[in-house]
Amino acid sequence: EPEVTQTPSHQVTQMGQEVILRCVPISNHLYFYWYRQILGQKVEFLVSFYNNEISEKSEIFDDQFSVERPDGSNFTLKIRSTKLEDSAMYFCASSRIQVYEQYFGPGTRLTVT
Amino acid sequence: KNQVEQSPQSLIILEGKNCTLQCNYTVSPFSNLRWYKQDTGRGPVSLTIMTFSENTKSNGRYTATLDADTKQSSLHITASQLSDSASYICVVSAQSNDYKLSFGAGTTVTVRA
User: Which of A42, A55, A107 has the CB atom closest to B99's CB atom?
Assistant: First the structure.
């Protein structure tokens, strides 16, 4: 069964450094998403991406964040200058069509020290 | 502001027993409601998706109900198994904004032998 994959599973970085989290969505899906979950808190929507552009973003997704689909398979989330409060689990998800089941990846645990 | 509230926060049940989780939401206009299962350290996995016209949907031992008038949903787990131990998250999307999902904080279910 196809699945969303994410790399790395755990990333440790120093405050102020740039990080890129990578995701490979399910191949025939058209909609891509990033979510984050701070330890012990609820999952929060960050951004959705369709047709090579951002379709929706939350107030969390400020200028420090960017997303890109650099090729036909990868979907990345970049944080330009990480802060301690960026430490969280970041989930990528994809769906075949809008208003349809979103499949989540296993997550990348980002630790900012 | 769109909100999703879940209760109880956590519960412990014996293997083989049934349990029911509750979800109340204020998302409007409503598009669909999803229940996800999230194992510790993993991404959420979809159990059910219901639109406003559906009032019950089953997936194996999981049965979700929806009352769009009172903005309430429940997830019933029948004949619980040890593998049902997880966080169960209620997720709602608004009709105007299907890309952006609003997550509840989840109910942590622990099944004991």
Answer: A55
CA distance A49 to A14: 28
Q: How far is B47 from chain A (nearest CA, A)?
A: 10
**Look-up of token digits 């769906």:** A95
Chain segment B30-53, per-residue pLDDT in tens: 888 999 999 988 899 999 999 888
Q: Which of B61, B57, B96 is nearest to B73 (CA)?
A: B57
Over the stretch B17-26, which tens digit does the pLDDT of each residue have?
A: 999 999 999 9
CA-based radius of gyration for chain A: 13
Q: Do B101 and A103 touch (CB under 8 A)?
A: no
């998403």: which residue's tokens? A33
Instruction: Sort residue B29 into left (φ over 0), alpha (ψ -120 to 50) or beta.
Output: beta
String of DSSP letters for B40-94: TTS--EEEEEEETT--EEEETTEEEEEETTTTEEEEEE-S--GGG-EEEEEEEEE
Cα(A13)–Cα(B64) distance, integer angstroms:
41
DSSP β-bridge partners for residue A20: A78
